[in-house]
Amino acid sequence: MIMDIVQNGGICVDIRGVHKFFGDFQVLFDVNLQIDKGEVCVVLGPSGSGISTLLRCINHLETIGAGRIFVNGGLIGYEEKNGRLYCLSSEAIATQRQHIGMVFQRFNLFPHMTALENVMSGPVMVKGKRRREAEPFAVSLLQQVGLADHMRKYPGQLSGGQQQRVAIARAMAMRPDVLLFDEPTSALDPELVGEVLETMKDLARSGMTMVVVTHEIGFAREVADKVVFMDEGRIVEAGPSEQVLGNPQNERTKSFLSKVL
Amino acid sequence: MIDRIRERRRAALGFASKIDLDLMTEKSKTNLIEFNNPVPVRHYGRWVMTAFLVIMAVSIAASLATNPNFHWNVVGRYLFDPQILRGVGWTLGLTVVAMSVSIAIAAALVIMRDSGNPVLSKLSWFWVWFFRGTPVYTQLVFWGLLSVLYPRISISLPIVGDLFDLRTKDVFTPAAAAIAGLAFNESAYLAEIFRAGFKAVDGGQTEAAEALGMRRMKILLRIVIPQAMRMIIPPTGNETIGMLKTTSLVLAVPFAYDLTFAANTISNRLYLPIPLLVVAATWYLAITSLLMWGQSHLERHFARGLDRNQAAIMPKESA
For tag attachment on chain B, is the N or C end more exposed, with fewer CB atoms within 10 Å? Predict the structure, then answer.
């Protein structure tokens, strides 16, 4: 168990009518998705279907062209006043991001810091805690992801799977309301995928709200409360995992699942 | 490998320890292997070349020592002459101050360039274009003549009136003009070095820091710059050594206290240019050596966690 998280129910991530363009190219078409508190939502889809982009819109790493995204009721990236939309300052966006954790495909650990310093980086550099205050929680997180023996090592001295587990601990150190996973196992050797998925399963069991973009159908089947299938920038099918994975209605979903299984 | 040789040597010297005993058994095992003992390729051409260069070097050294025209006694007498030592101090001071100012300007230029504001970005580009595109000697002359071009410097606001009004001569002393000339020119080169260093840091680093909720300045100071330093330090060290020698041009201002000027003054008095040039060159070499030593320490510091070739990446103990 990574943490005991008590969620009161209600909507955590609320995506309403989102369109996203890269120049003239439209990547997301009218995406609507609600994720409840404590829910694990797995987003599936072929590469280039806009799944990673959607995830990156949730913490405003990408700006949306139309629509609204709310996290715990707060509008992300903008402020709405008198019927007009105002961009938030980068400081205000940074404050919003403190409550949204993210785990990247390529880990993106800070290479000049040890595993422990990476995990403490959020509390120390963002929340302004002293190292001594931040250390016990960081150490316990590293213990929970099974890396207590490696906490003084630099990322370059760790395997891919270990690095990704450090990255999960780093995101958890900010005590986020929701964790976003952007293909967390795609850059790993096959034999290292399991240890990262185990860590994520522990997290899911603890009640963490998670949005996971992945190609690991087995993980979705075992852990997901909700599965969303996207293709060409649109949500094709969404619903409880047994329904979408066990009895897909859409032809596109059926052919995708038949290929990846 | 070296460790093994060292252990064997210890064993041969008769140190008896558990490690040595282990090594003995290891050794007896390796004794069973019949090692290849190939004859290396003989590079006769290299031997001839080596002999030639050694003879050349020895004869040049001998001629330096014996040629009376070098006046080694004069070199010895003036190496620690007060005027020379003051010159060394000024040269070192100009280098350090001009370099510090140019680092600050270059950092501002890089931030302006990537600010996303088109006017700031163009201004930064223009600064680099201008100060890199004109000779530093010309720039030094210009800053020296500034008080002739603009006898007074003042800023007036429409209603408030004069904010300040100063005589240029009082602000732009020769030392200030020399520092401005050197620093502005250098900042243009450093800005490009810094920009290259920042660009070389993986974009995922900034994204990860943003995702944690870090502010932009913090990302720059704590995430991007520490990683960019590895790329920035070697060329900046180059520039610092270059700056050390460029300070010899400050007579264009005219600024009359640096090492080259001091050496020239003495040699003009003695009618002996060679020994005083040797004195100046010795000091430039000494300062360069000092700077190189400092650079290697900085490089080692910023290699933390990033340099795979470093045999032991020592984890930092946290308090």
Answer: N
